[in-house]
Amino acid sequence: EDESNNNLHFRRNYLRHKVIPLLREQWPSLGNSFSALSHWSMEAQQICDDQAEQDYQQMILRGINQGVTEGRALNRLMLMVLSSARQKNLLRYWLRRCGVAMPSAEQLAEIQQQCLVQTETEDRHPKIMLGDFCVTAFQEGLYLFLPPCRGKVRMGVEFSREDLIITEVVGKGLKKSLWNNPSLQIKNRVGGERFQLAGKPHHTTLKKLLQENKVAPWVRDTMPLVFFGDQLIAIPALGLIAEGCVASGDEAGVEFLPQ
Q1: Per residue in 119-155, is it b (16+ CB within 10 Å) or e — as a string?
Q2: At a CB cut-off of 8 Å and minimum separation 6, what does 40 contact?
């Protein structure tokens, strides 16, 4: 016996000692009714989970998507077709599978209103924070990820060559002589970079290239880029090499492999 069990200040004790006895006087079978209700609730939850699992298997985006591991991205266009109740059921199931604390009704409604609607611009990506996690919509996907800690994402941060996976080739890829040159640097974007694609007469902005290739906004600021001096000469994640930097003929080159 815990002495706190008789303290009516606690709601559980007030119910146990004051409310439930009165209810039992009026409805003697109250305990059996609660037991049956609990059983029915468990069955209903199992049905909801079974339906959510079927929806999840149909809508999960397989493999790595925009730097997000499998299981943490859903096809939002397919999700948008479901009824509101079925959307919520799948969202709860998905977040529970990913180890995220159960969102409030308000947070679920915000995900639906912000992320599960048609948008006028493809580059719009609303974000809803759930504790340390972020749910965001981008293109056809609904993504769950841990955003970089504030203060740790800095522009112009350098990487080492070991941060990229390469394979040696001949007559294509980035010239190996450039790859081995001490002046070569690998770092993330600082903003305003321009890039001339091999075979193209004009430069274009890096921002436009990333948008055209549907690179998610949260990936753009942290992806490694290859510079020679101040010139951007390769975008490894997209396999793009700048004009004048592509190996040809019998010239040795390197190609970047996906990570």
Answers
A1: eeeeeebebbebeebebbbbbbbbbbbeeeeeeeeee
A2: none
Output the pLDDT for position 150. Answer: 46
Which among 218, 240, 254 has a CA at the least distance from the CA of 129? 218
- Would you state the pLDDT for residue 26? 85
Say if residues 143 and 73 touch (Cβ distance below 8 Å): yes
Residue 161 amino acid letter: R
Do residues 187 and 236 lie in contact, with contact meaning Cβ atoms separated by under 8 Å? Answer: no
- Say how many C-beta atoms besides its own lie within 10 A of residue 236's C-beta: 24
Collapsed DSSP state (helix, strand, coil) of residue 170: strand
Tokens of residue 68, six digits: 């997000």
Is residue 136 within 8 Å of residue 126, measured between CB atoms? yes
Residue 143's SS3 state is strand
Report residue 200 CA to chain centroid gap.
34
CA dist list (Å): 255 to 27, 45, 189: 77, 51, 20
Judged by DSSP in three states, 239 sits in coil
Per-run averaged pLDDT (10 residues), the chain, 259 residues: 75 87 84 83 94 97 91 96 97 96 94 87 80 93 82 70 93 96 93 92 93 90 92 94 95 90
Strand 231-235 vs strand 141-145: parallel, antiparallel, or unpaired?
A: unpaired
Sheet containing 73-75, strands listed edge to edge, beginning at the edge strand earlier in sequence: 73-75, 141-145, 133-138, 127-130
